[in-house]
Amino acid sequence: MSTETDQQAREQLIDLAAQFYDQFQLGEIPHMDVPTRTKSNIELDEDLGVWVYGDRTSRRSANSVAGARKLLKAVYTIEFLAHQLEENRSSTLRELYYISESWDNENAHFNDQDESNQLIEDLEIVSAVTREDFHMRPEESGATVLGPLHLLEQTRRGEREIHCQEDVGEGGYQIPNNPDTIEFLDHDAEFILAVETGGMRDRLVENGFDEDYGALIVHLGGQPARATRRIIKRLHDELEIPVTVFADGDPWSYRIYGSVAYGSIKSAHLSEYLATPEAQYIGIQPEDIVEYDLPTDPLSDSDTNALESELEDPRFQTDYWEEQIELQLEIEKKAEQQALASYGLDFVTDTYLPERLSAMGII
User: Fold this and answer.
1) What would the pLDDT profile of 176-208 be if each residue is shown by its tens digit?
2) What pLDDT, on a 0 to 100 scale, did the predictor assign at position 235?
3) In the predicted model, is pLDDT for residue 141 greater than 70?
């Protein structure tokens, strides 16, 4: 049975399709305007402390064959999503790409999944409804939470209470596609430690870091999925738990932190919903590479270009990041989290993290 949220999402989609009809009636060429999703079109929202899209837009218009095909695909997708919501069904982004192959008009078929993914993002923006409320799911991200958190989860068989330390294995609690269906019941967490790699997450769990320090360990699984960023946001805002991000010492990992703290270009329309600007970076710093003489790899040309780009990125224009990035460009080295194991398997939990967390005032 569909919920009130489902009905509202369906109405928003139908209203969007009705706008195309109204444009026809007024003698206008049907069109849809969406923000330009480029770094040059994101700006800091001073009130929210996150990055949002600026005023520049791109028009999807039927004044060309290519534009007309895009709008046709949008209409077919809206019809599919509205029907899906009416039947209380769900599908994955990958399935949508294949589903289009069954549509009776070949011009509505997607050329590849990137095209269907982008259309879903367009529909999110112009309808102000998230894809989660469309019942669209990504492929499983494998992201998990482990630590002193007690929650209530909605399942197909009803409600289920789960303690993310006592009721789960070492893999932790699997973050659902839509974390807004979770109710937080209780917790004893002192802080959230969002960890980039599975190997480091396993080391922390094996060493009992969650128990010793009251840490909620969230496995980001690389570039974090929306569901991962959303649950971090909710845990911080609703339970007032400080957030730290523990990642490798390279430009791509700095961007992982940036997406958690300030949002990403791709989902800037959801920054208020996904980003946690209070999150602090606790990952490997260029300063650590020098201080601890960590095992390193040389910077590649793409690494160097990425670091230079980050110096121009509004998300990294602070004294801290400018100092660290300039130091990294000077030493021409990068290091992984696991490089700390050169001092022993317990060094990261007994020395490195406690010292960093203490210096930051977290513990």
Assistant:
1) 888 998 999 999 999 999 999 888 999 999 999
2) 98
3) no
Query: Which alpha helices (DSSP H) does 26-141 contain, by range?
Result: 65-86, 93-99, 113-127
167 phi/psi in degrees, rounded to 5: -105, 10
The active-site residue out of 98, 273, 292, 343 is 98
Identify which of 217, 190, 214, 222 has the alpha carbon closest to the alpha carbon of residue 203. Answer: 217
Encode pLDDT of 156-177 as tens digits.
Answer: 778 899 999 999 988 899 998 8
Both tokens of 328, joined, read: 């990294």
Per-residue pLDDT for 42 more than 80? no
Please give the radius of gyration of the chain, using alpha carbons only, rounded to the nearest integer.
Answer: 22
**Cα angle: 55, vertex 59, 63; to 5 degrees:** 155
| Residues sharing a CB contact under 8 Å with residue 223, sequence separation 6 or more, in sequence order | 255, 256, 259
Closest CA to 131 of 195, 225, 207: 225
- Cα–Cα–Cα angle for 222, 224, 226, nearest 5°? 160
What are the domain boundaries of the chain? 4-128, 144-359
What's the topology of domain 4-128?
Arc Repressor Mutant, subunit A (1.10.10)
Nearest to 339 by CA among 276, 264, 285, 272: 285
Class of the domain covering 144-359: alpha beta
What the block records as the tokens of 130 is: 């998230």
For the cut 70, the answer to whether the pLDDT of residue 346 exceeds it is: yes
- Whether 98 is a known active-site residue: answer yes
**Can you tell me the mean pLDDT for 258-271?**
84
